[in-house]
């Protein structure tokens, strides 16, 4: 399923402008994004992207990541997408910093993102209700085990998750 009308904030000729989401990726435009890492008992909740996603289908990613809609602030977006993708509500999201990366995500698409990164601590009874249009599977994994899996099978993980853990591990996970 390819989105056709979602307008995201992207830089065009130096100005932040609403750009259709797919077009931003086709053109490799630098654009705004959010990423969330939910942690429970020292483990990170990761998700396997649904096969219907227009890029990186079936790959494992951090808990939640997306682009804010034009005019939407990063924290509101993070809360919205946690609920839409995983049915998660009520977490206290903490801003950890900003990351910028550029990566080929296949099919001629480029993610060039300026990402606001958030973390949240989850309780043992936090309910999950993954949206099958967004998420194929979820699991909790320690950062150490995740690093080993990424080293052994990097092709199973999204480029941004690999970049976050390789280049920004201390900022994100402290």
Can you walk me through this structure?
It is built from 5 helices and 9 strands. It is α+β, with helices and mostly antiparallel strands. The strands form 2 sheets. Strands 3, 4, 5, 6, 7, 8 and 9 form a 7-stranded mixed β-sheet that branches. The model has no long low-confidence stretch (mean pLDDT 95).
Briefly say what this structure is.
This protein is α+β, with helices and mostly antiparallel strands and 174 residues long. Helices cover 25% and strands 39% of the residues.
Keyword list:
alpha+beta; 174 residues; single chain; 7-stranded mixed beta sheet
Label the structural class.
alpha+beta
Portion in strands: 35-45%
What is the approximate shape? globular
Overall average pLDDT:
95
The tally of strands reads 9
Distance between the termini: 36 Å
Any idea what the radius of gyration is? 15 Å
Biggest beta sheet attributes: 7 strands, mixed
What's the SSE pattern? EEHEEEEHEEEHHH
Low-confidence stretches: none
Number of helices: 5
Helix content, binned percent = 25-40%
Map the helices and strands.
Elements: E1 7-12, E2 15-20, H1 21-27, E3 30-40, E4 43-49, E5 60-61, E6 64-66, H2 74-86, E7 94-106, E8 109-121, E9 135-141, H3 143-152, H4 159-167, H5 169-173
Parallel strand pairs: 3-8
Antiparallel strand pairs: 1-2, 3-4, 3-6, 4-5, 4-9, 7-8
């Amino acid at each position: 399923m390819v989105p056709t009308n979602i307008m995201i904030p992207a830089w065009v000729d130096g100005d932040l402008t609403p750009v259709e989401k797919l077009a931003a990726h086709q053109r490799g435009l630098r654009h705004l994004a959010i990423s969330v890492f939910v942690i429970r008992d020292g483990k990170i909740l990761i998700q396997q992207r649904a096969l219907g996603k227009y890029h990186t289908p079936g790959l494992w990613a951090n808990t939640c990541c997306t682009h804010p809609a034009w005019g939407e602030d990063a924290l509101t977006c993070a809360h919205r997408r946690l609920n839409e993708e995983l049915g998660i509500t009520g977490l206290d999201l903490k801003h950890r910093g900003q990351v910028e990366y550029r990566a080929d995500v296949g099919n001629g698409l480029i993610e060039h993102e300026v990402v606001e990164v958030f973390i949240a601590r989850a309780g043992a009874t936090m309910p999950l209700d993954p949206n099958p249009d967004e998420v194929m599977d979820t699991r909790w994994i320690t950062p150490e085990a995740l690093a080993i899996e990424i080293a052994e099978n990097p092709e199973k993980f999204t480029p941004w998750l690999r970049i976050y853990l390789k280049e920004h591990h201390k900022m994100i996970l402290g």
